[in-house]
Here is the input.
Amino acid sequence: MSRFLLAFAASGAVATLAVACSGSTAPSSISTSVVGVVPRGGATSVPTSAVVTVTFSHAMMPSMQQYMAVHRDSLRGPLVSMTMSWSPDSTILTMMPLAPLAPGTTYVLHMGGGMMDAHADSISYAQCPSLGGVPVTSSMMGGMMGGSEMGPGWMGGNGDYGMEFVFHTT
Here is the structure.
């Protein structure tokens, strides 16, 4: 019994199609992953009016926005106040700052390590480095221990605290 896996890219998103042969069965679940981040990690000249979006390959639990944060200056910097909303299919999270971002400033988007999709499965961060993301470890969290970003959902099963995406405004 053999299986074939065909992966292809379409409009910047990656889709995976499993084809089962000779009576074998297809996998029961497909891992949800991060497929887009705007602005990307490492972006420069980001407008101060920027809206931050994260796109997932499958629907997410609606409450997962609580494990997303944008910090000013560094991962340990102050939080940026913003509103967050999901697309109707719960695959795109839009984060709109309540005030324009400061010019010439570094910002860090932090995604918690324990984020779950609509089926309560952990998401994959495997594609995040190609989007400019860097894994967040407990040593990077440093003085944040005991703070709002240390509860359930911020730490993943592997002990990491998700991903960070650093960008700079014009």
The beta strands are 3-10, 13-20, 34-38, 52-56, 68-72, 82-86, 92-97, 106-111, 134-135, 163-168. The first strand starts at residue 3 and ends at 10. Residues 1-28 have pLDDT under 50 and may be disordered.
